[in-house]
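B., you asked whether I could sanity-check this one before it goes into the benchmark set. Here's the sequence:
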Amino acid sequence: MRSRYTAYALRELDYLRDSWHPASRPAALDGAADAKWIGLDILACRDGGRKDAEGIVEFVARFKIGGRARRLHEISRFARVDGRWYYVDGEPGPTDTDHRAAADDA
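And here's what the prediction gave me:
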């Protein structure tokens, strides 16, 4: 999770694409260059240990687009394939009102 946040902050689109599970990977990552990522808080983790095949991370990422501050609160699913973790998908966290706008912009 932290590596993907860092990749968004540094605009490392190749890493984001490569760390996205092939079954759910989008064709393009539109809008990622417009966001200025300013913080990440990991709220909870479930599973995702050395022997787990799946893990869940709840986080809040803060960013700005056009000077407007936003939050992305998401519960993300990850899967381990051949020893490597991949982002599968996510759903809005219980307090996220900007998730749809953030997903469109990121």
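One thing to flag: Residues 2-105 form a domain with the Nuclear Transport Factor 2; Chain: A, fold (CATH 3.10.450.50). Otherwise nothing jumped out at me.
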